Each structure stands twice: as structure tokens, then as C-alpha cells.
Amino acid sequence: MTAEAPPIMDLGLSAAEPAANMLPVMESEGPALEHLSRDECIRLMGSVLVGRIVYTLQALPAVELVNFALDDGDIIIRTDSGGKLAAATRGAVVAFEADSVDAHGHAGWSVTVVGQSGAVTDGAEIRHLEHTGIMPWAPGGHDHFIRIAPAIINGRRFAPGRPA
Predict the structure, then answer these.
(1) Using 50, 70 and 90 to split pLDDT, how confident is the model at 12?
(2) What CATH code is carried by the domain that includes residue 69?
């Protein structure tokens, strides 16, 4: 006894029934989504003071709210050299997210960066970064700079939709 092969189904569009195989286009009065260019992502990130760094801590994801600055397109965070953030981000791939939301207007933007992080150890570079104006809000010593070089940048803007 031989098994019968299942029927072959054509999932492509049929010339006889073009509309039968397509989803209808739906108009929405909700927020419209716009994907942002790399340059626009960097510009928007430079307009806010805080973001979130996502890193691995004891094999688990960790997220911290941090204030930051941009230096030639890189993200700079200033922290305590003996803290868990400094230790966990040495040479690690991390994610960073910054956003701005207008809850009343149902609008805003969000930018996510993935990149290699590293401790800044060069004396001249540290002196340069000390003049960027980045001042951590958390108490304690902040003698350590972390630089995140963006490898992947994704951004999107939400805006009120247009009536149909």
C-alpha cells in the first residue's frame, strides 16, 4: 500500500481571482509608523538626556536608565569604574534605546542601537569627554566612561494617522 501525496496548493496570485488571494488595504485613523534614517536616529537621540542600556549581567538581561551624550555618533555613558555596569559592558555587545513620547498626542519616536561597548582609557579622550557636559544624576563617583559604537540603528516615529 503506497501513501498518497498531499495535494499541491498554489498560494500565488491567480489571474482569474486576483482579489481572492490578497488582503484588503485598510485605512486607519490610528498612529502612522515611519521608519527613520540613521542620520535622523542620531539627531533625535541627541535631543534627549536619558536612555536605557541593555546588557548581560550574570547571564541574564539587565536594563538601566542612564543619562548619556553623543560624541561623533557614539553613545557615551559616565559611571563608576567599580560598578556592575562598568564591569558588565567591557568589550560586550549591548543595546541602547532612547525615545520621546507625547502620550496625549499619541506621537513620539524610539531609536534602538546595538553595538560594541568599551571602556575609554586614553587620557586625552577622557579629558575630551569630561567637557561634553555629561553629568550623571546618580550619586557617587563617576570616573569611568563607556563608549558604544553603533553597528545597528533602528528608529521609528509614531504620528497621528490621517483620516481616510
Answers:
(1) very low
(2) 2.30.110.10
Cα dihedral 7, 8, 9, 10 sign: negative
Please answer whether residues 120 and 126 qualify as being in contact, where contact means their C-beta atoms are separated by less than 8 angstroms.
yes
Matching residue, cell 488571494: 21
Task: Look at residue 143 and tell me whether its pLDDT is greater than 50.
Answer: yes
Domain contains 9: no
Query: What residue numbers bound the domain in which 85 lies?
Result: 33-154
Q: How many domains does the structure of the chain reveal?
A: 1
- 160 within domain boundaries: no
CA distances from 80 to 86, 87, 110, 141, 142 (A): 7, 10, 27, 5, 4
How far, in Å, CA of 56 to CA of 88, rounded?
A: 7
pTM above 0.85, yes or no: no
Residue 58 within a domain: yes
